[in-house]
Fold this sequence. Notes:
This protein is α/β, with parallel strands linked by helices. Helices cover 47% and strands 14% of the residues. The chain contains 12 helices and 8 strands. Helix 11 links the parallel strand 7 and strand 8. The longest helix is centred in the last third of the chain and has 19 residues, at 182-200. Residues 11, 97, 169, 174-175, 213-216, 234-238 line the site of 1,3-dihydroxyacetonephosphate. 1,3-dihydroxyacetonephosphate binds at residues 11, 97, 169, 174-175, 213-216, 234-238.
Amino acid sequence: MAKRKPLIAGNWKMYKTGPQAGELTGRLKSLVSDVVDVDVMVAPPFTVLGVVAEILKGSGIYLGGQNLFWEAEGAYTGEISAPMLKAVGCTYVIIGHSERRQYFGETNASVNRKIRAALVGGLIPVVCIGESEAERELGQTFSVVQEQLEEGLEGLISDDVQKLGIAYEPVWAIGTGKTATTDQAQEVHEFIRGRMGTVYGNSVANAVRILYGGSVKPENIGDLITMADIDGALVGGASLNADSFAAIVRSCVDSVTDKA
Ligand code: 13P
C-alpha cells in the first residue's frame, strides 16, 4: 500500500524571540507555502505562538506546541493547556520529548496523561520515544522503545491511536551531528509499527506516521524518507534556519514525487 503522507516538523526548542520568530516564519512561508505533497509543521516556544500563527495564516503550514499540561485550566503556574494551544492555532503538540524526560522529570505515565489531554482538546500528539546511547550499547533499544510505547499509550483506543504521530528520536543522535544510519532508523521504525500492529491491528499500524528525529539535515532526509517505515522527520537545529528547513521539506517532496 502507499506510504503515509510525510510530515516534516520543526521543533524550535528554546530559541527565537518575537522578531526572530517573525523573520524565520515569514521566510519559511515564502519558501514552502506551495508544498502539498508533504505536511509541514513548526513548533515554536509558547511565547511566540501567537506571532507565528498570525504569519502562517493562509500558508498551509501547521502550528504545534512543544509541550502541554493535562488539565484544561486551573491554578498551575507556568503551565499551558490543550485548549490554550488550540485557541492560538495549534494543530499538533509534541509530547514526551527526551529533553522533557531528561531535564523535567517526565515519565511514561505523565506522557500518557498528556496524550489523553491533547486528544480531548482536539490536538494531534507527536509522541517522542527513543533510547539513550548507553541503552543502545547494552542492546536495550527495542525493550526501551517498547516500554515507552506501551506505557505512554496505555488504555488508549485504536481510533485515537491511529491519529497519533510517533517520533523515534534516539537520544544519542539529538543535537550531536550523529544521525542514525537509514538501516538503524528503519529497523526501529519497523519494530514500532510491528508493535502497533500487534496491539492495535494492522489498519492502525498502517495509518500511524512514524517520524525520525536526530540531526536531520537537508543532506540526509532524502535517504531517510525513502525507507519503508519512515514517514517524516522531527527537526531541531536545522529548523531554526528557514533555508535549511525548507531544503529538508523540498528534498522530502522530491523523494515522494519521484516514487509516485
Ligand atoms: P536536532 O535535529 O538538533 O538533532 O534535534 C532533534 C530533536 O530533538 C527534534 O525534536
